[in-house]
Each structure stands twice: as structure tokens, then as C-alpha cells.
Amino acid sequence: MTTELIRLEGINKSFGNVQALKDIDLKIDSGEIVALLGDNGAGKSTLIKALSGVYPIDKGAIFFKGKHASIRSARDAIDLGIETIHQDSSLAPDLSIANNLFLGREPMRYAWMGAFSPIDRAYVESRTRELLRKAGISKNLDPHTKIKGLSGGERQSIAIARAMFFSSDLIILDEPTNNLGVDETRAVLRFIREARASGHSCIYITHSLHHVFEVADRVIIMRQGTIISDLPRSETDLIRTEMLITEGVVRSAETS
Ligand SMILES: Nc1ncnc2c1ncn2[C@@H]1O[C@H](COP(=O)(O)OP(=O)(O)OP(=O)(O)O)[C@@H](O)[C@H]1O
């Protein structure tokens, strides 16, 4: 049985006289991996920024787990269970892996002391080690290693692991494999599959169509602020998808 996780109804967003999103309707179920595609300027980033609390929407409604949701800040999105991993990775390069994982959610050693309590470092360290194991990061990384000393793939895996660890229901990935090597890309794709296997949903923005056909359950194509195609992966293919992205049409016997 499928369970609806998020539903967008009539979402509109303009920047001056540029209408970046026009009446977007979209529904994503729990455990679904959705590829969000489209040419430059199609509206993909604006859509995910609306979901991650970066831009307030002008019009429309967002329902999360069946309830009306008001997403007006990044905190609102995170509190709902929406974690966004941006292109350049959302990790702070000068902080350690452990500090990044628990940034803004530091566990306190003595609950009764509230904000004055020291951080529970032993807990942070043991959970970080557990998470690194789960993330399948092969090197035996020390939780105190600074993010800037890690490879691009390791950073992306840690960012995704953080979203999974904090039980974000919806993980939004904006070009997660940009500038990654072959092995690192594999690791990120494997992680997306693992996220799905444990019931998380993902919206995955990419220009790499081959990756889409490896991991996505559904392929959504945007053009000029609207969704022009929304198909299960089994009902489309690379050539058709490419034509829809670049020309907005499929030139084949079925459509001409
Ligand atoms: N902050 C902004 N101010 C003004 N216009 C913007 C802003 N953000 C996006 N736009 C415009 O909104 C439209 C959609 O842009 P958006 O970045 O969402 O597209 P995209 O599909 O993510 O493109 P890309 O693949 O190039 O990142 C474009 O015409 C863009 O110029």
C-alpha cells in the first residue's frame, strides 16, 4: 500500500515579472524516489527551495503527511522532516564530521540544565561512528576529522546519512553527484537506494540522465515553470526524456 507523504496544490512563485512556478500540482508517496528534471531555468531549484523554506510561495498549498504545512523557513522544513542537500553539500567545511552531524541538534548531557548543559560528547562520538559504518564509508574515519579533509563523495554520503539518521521523511538532493568521481557517484546512488529501502522519499535534481534511470521510480520534467511530464520510470526512456527536456515534445509516431 502506498502512503502519501507530500502533496503540492497550485504552487505559484514569481520573481518580479518572472513566473518561476506556475500552478504546480505534485504528490510524492513514502519510499518514492522522484527525479526532477528540466533545462536551465525550468524552475527545479525554485520548487525545492519552496519546499526547503528558502522561498515563501506566493500561492498554493503544501500538505505533509495529510496535514496542511506552512514552510516559511529552513527550520520549518527540517522540523517537518524535510532535509535538503545542496549541490555544494550543506556541511560546514571547518567543522568535524561529528559536529556537522549534530549541528543545531546537539544532545545535552544533563537535560535538567537546559541550554546551560555541556554537550554529551560521548554520545555524539559513538553515534557518529555508528553512522559512518551505516553510510558504508570504507575508510575508518575519525569523527573528529574536518569535513574539508574529505572527498566529495564522502561529504555527500555524510550529508545524506545525516538526513537519514535524523529520520527526515523527505530528502531533497540537488545535483548530488556533480563533480564526483565514478566510485563516489556509485556510493551516492547506493545511498539513495538505501534511503528508499528504509522508507525515505527523495526528490533528486540532476542533469545526469543515466543516474535517473538507475535509481528513480518516477521521472518528472519541468519546463518554463510547469510540470510537462510525470511518468513512472517504466513508462519512459532516456531518449524520450531527453527530448522532453530539450524540446518539450516527443517526436515519435505516438505524438506526431
Ligand atoms: N532569486 C531569484 N531572483 C530572480 N529570478 C530568479 C531567482 N531564482 C530563480 N529565478 C528565475 O526563475 C526561473 C527558474 O529558475 P530556477 O533556478 O528555479 O531554474 P532551474 O530549473 O533550477 O535551473 P538550473 O538547472 O539552471 O539550476 C529562471 O527564469 C530564473 O532566472
UniProtKB/TrEMBL annotation:
Coiled-coil stretches noted in the UniProt entry, renumbered to this chain: none
GO MF terms, alphabetically ordered: ATP binding; ATP hydrolysis activity
Entry-linked CDD domains: ABC_Carb_Monos_I
Record key words, sorted: ATP-binding, Cell membrane, Membrane, Nucleotide-binding, Repeat, Sugar transport, Transport
Domain ABC transporter: 6-249
PANTHER family given in the database record: CARBOHYDRATE TRANSPORT ATP-BINDING PROTEIN MG119-RELATED, SUGAR ABC TRANSPORTER ATP-BINDING PROTEIN
Name of the molecule in the record: ABC transporter related
